[in-house]
Each structure stands twice: as C-alpha cells, then as structure tokens.
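F.,

This is the one I mentioned.
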C-alpha cells in the first residue's frame, strides 16, 4: 500500500510539472519538493533524499540547457533514473541482510 501511494505521489508531481506551460526553477523546485515530501512520508532516509535532490538539481541545470531540449523529458528521465538507482541499493542491502541471516542460522545449527 505504501509503495502504491509513493508511486502515485511521484507520478502526480511529475504530471503536475508536465502540465506547466513553462519549466523554470520554480516549477522544478515545486516538483522536487513534492517528490521529497512523498519520500519522507514513505520513511526514506533523509540523507538519501537530500542527495537525490541535489543530484537532480546538478544534472538538470535549467540555465545551461540549450533552447531545443525537452526540459520535461530530461527532468523525468533523471528523476526516474535516480529513484531506480536508490531502489536498487535498498534491494541489494535487503538481499545481503537476508543472506547474512541465513548464514548465521546455518552456522548456528552446525
């Protein structure tokens, strides 16, 4: 249930950004703040959220994008890529934790 709400909140934030007429720093900040709020409500670590926020801001530098680039698409791609990267790290940590528990149970039984 939490993942569905998180996905819905992130989707709404990106959709709201996509519906904006002009993509500027204010629109980008509003979108990122909504995503940050959704991640905090899902109990994601604050350091991870702060790092993701700063990485998105650094990669998507609206002042330096050339005139022909699709800013909406770039913001969505970068956000999706960094969220996937964060999820993969959490998944790998979870798998390593389970393997450690299995190993400890096995060693304890021998």
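My design for it:
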């Amino acid at each position: 249930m939490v993942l569905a709400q998180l996905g819905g909140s992130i989707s709404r934030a990106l959709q709201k950004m996509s519906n904006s007429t002009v993509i500027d720093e204010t629109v980008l900040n509003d979108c990122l703040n909504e995503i940050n709020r959704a991640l905090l409500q899902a109990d994601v670590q604050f350091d991870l959220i702060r790092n993701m926020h700063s990485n998105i801001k650094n990669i998507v530098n609206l002042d330096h994008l050339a005139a022909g680039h699709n800013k909406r698409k770039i913001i969505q791609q970068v956000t999706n890529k960094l969220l996937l990267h964060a999820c993969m790290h959490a998944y790998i940590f979870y798998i390593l934790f389970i393997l450690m528990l299995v190993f400890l149970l096995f060693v304890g039984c021998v």
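The domain at 2-109 is CATH 1.20.120.140 (Four Helix Bundle (Hemerythrin (Met), subunit A)).

Talk soon.
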